[in-house]
Amino acid sequence: MSDAALARHIAETAGELLLTLQASGLIQGKALGRAGDRVANAFIVEALRQARPDDALLSEEEAADPARLGHSRVWIVDPLDGTREYSEGRSDWAVHVALAIDGVAAIGAVALPALSLTLGSDDPPPIACAGEAPLRMLVSRSRPAAHAVAVAEALAAELVPMGSAGAKAMAVVRGEADIYLHSGGQYEWDSCAPVAVARAAGLHVSRIDGSPLVYNREDPYLPDLLICRKEHARRVLDLVARIDA
């Protein structure tokens, strides 16, 4: 099985497990989110260790192993991105499975189980035609990033609140939004799989200063990113630079 097919299969299967756990009704509220994190993580970690025993692994739910820094190939996963949304029965949560090669988000799959949809870097959807104004900018449901709010105001863009990072990134891939700008703090597992899919789809991906997103660093904190249609990237980056000046 190819790396891309493996990423997709694992993400989809983890999503099915999470849906089954959710539908059982045996656990609810925040406890459901905690159980979902543990169940999905246990499955993904074991599946990757069996299928790719020579590769390294970084998961949100596992203590980071410094030995991974000596590996070219590192699987970076978020077993349940959007734990709060999952526990509330919403649809904007995701499963991220990605492979970083030499620091680049090379391969990824983002499962959106509540939508019965998985998007992968091996077969991304074609970029939809640009929508009519106003532009649509995705922001966090609970803590919209200050940069995003300021840029949206400058662009006269509509703010679209949404849950997980994966759900927001895939909304841009699917043509449901134009820009996902985040500066409120994230880690490598929040963006690696979405970035791999978005790049494969032909979208712009970078940090908000325009520099590349680099993975498998000693400190996995990777606080900001920009995913958008390429025709909007320069203007968004210039606006961010002006805000930070």
UniProtKB/TrEMBL annotation:
Positions of Mg(2+) binding: 60, 78, 80-81, 190
CDD domains: CysQ
Single Gene Ontology BP annotation: sulfate assimilation
Record's catalysed reaction(s): adenosine 3',5'-bisphosphate + H2O = AMP + phosphate
Keywords from the named record: Magnesium, Metal-binding
GO molecular function: 3'(2'),5'-bisphosphate nucleotidase activity; metal ion binding
UniProt cross-references to SUPFAM superfamilies, sorted A to Z: Carbohydrate phosphatase
Needed co-factor(s): Mg(2+)
PROSITE patterns: IMP_1
Matches recorded under InterPro entries: CysQ/Inositol_MonoPase (IPR050725), Inositol_monoP_metal-BS (IPR020583), Inositol_monophosphatase-like (IPR000760)
Keyword ATP-binding recorded: no
Keyword match Ion transport: no
Transmembrane segments annotated in the record for this chain: none
Gene3D superfamilies per the UniProt record, alphabetical: 3.40.190.80, Fructose-1,6-Bisphosphatase, subunit A, domain 1 (3.30.540.10)
Highest taxon of source: Bacteria
Name assigned to this protein: 3'(2'),5-bisphosphonucleoside 3'(2')-phosphohydrolase
Organism the protein comes from: Sphingomonas oleivorans
